[in-house]
Amino acid sequence: MDRRAFLNIVGGGVIVSATPGCAILQPTPKQALTPWLSAGTNYSEPRRKALSYAILCPNPHNRQPWKVDLSVENQVILFVDTDRLLPHTDPFGRQITIGLGCFTELMVMAAAADGWEVEIDVFPDGEDTTRLLDSRPVVVARFSKNEITETDPLFQQVRFRHSLNTPFDTTKTVPQTVMDKAIDVAIHGSQVMGSNDPAMVKTLRNLTHESLSIELDTPRTYKESVDLFRIGKKEINRNPDGIDFSGRTFEILSLFGMFSRKVALDPESSGYKQGRAAVLENTTTAMAHLWVVTPTNTRLDQINVGRDWVRINLSTTASGVGLHPLSQILQEYPEMKSLYTEIHQLLAADGGTVQMLARMGYGKPENRSPRWPIDAKLVGESA
Ligand SMILES: Cc1cc2nc3c(=O)[nH]c(=O)nc-3n(C[C@H](O)[C@H](O)[C@H](O)COP(=O)(O)O)c2cc1C
Fold first, then answer.
1. pTM surpassing 0.90?
2. Is 325 in the pocket of ligand 1 (CB under 6 A)?
3. Full DSSP string of 133-175
């Protein structure tokens, strides 16, 4: 199908006989978005209440790879769900661990807002950064009542935060003050830097574009993403995780067989070509970039990067600016090696690991991404 025919269909050139309640007329996957509305409201038990916010954290491919044990009073043991790792694009579990750091920070922040102090022990049974994560605990958190805990001003942004993966307005620059604010909220030891300098933005637009092309052109890394596509309201409500495609356009494309996981894997299909062009275009609309470096690359570093990352994202939410991670160039697989080296020479010339890289700018807001409720993530006996 050529581009004009495709746009005709998307633009309403096809008459669809839709009945009230059908996904084309009401495409929002409301059930999958409920955790955003209900955070903090359904539980009086302090750990569950804090966890109902923690599940709203950013995390790679929205895998939501957390498992939570509440069997000991006032204690949360956070495990990784080893069925939810990303072995091709995240072979050492570095990014998944960053996501678990984001989870930890929101749990601590929400508990503090509720008058509970939380003491954290990270990878108490040891760690191994040279391979994927295993079933050892990631974090043990002990809650104790403390009426004088302060509510972090960032907390009020938790239910509005988003990783904004739409094109940005290339006529609107990101003010330095917004970047400075985002950098200042990092309190867990990460080195956060950013640039809105046009020459640097151009360089990083090119590098992120090139690295995304490599990921799309490497069959096993691309398939890892496609396998996680959730297309349309029904699929998203049934599996509220992964990479979600919702809205009227995707309901129609899916209904006519023009967009599916199979189509996305066929490089000759117009669905593949349009999708590829759209994600690559995003990189070229970056108006600033922000990145995080750590001198060493331990699991504790990765957890702390996550704790800082979600804070940064909450700050950009408060400032009304979009933040969109572009992690491909930071990934540790052979096809990415030369670009990985180049970005490290550019952003971590004195050594260290670039843990996060994101573009910033002003874009059209989107639906928030789906979530499993916290009850779906509890393991072991509940206290
Ligand atoms: C470590 C890490 C790496 C990420 N890398 C990417 C990325 O390369 N591309 C992207 O579109 N989103 C990336 N994200 C954002 C996630 O896809 C996003 O957090 C997840 O889909 C949930 O959506 P939300 O943040 O809007 O709630 C990353 C997030 C984290 C924590």
1. yes
2. yes
3. --SS-SEEEEEEE-TTPPPPGGGGGGGG-----S-B-TT-PPP
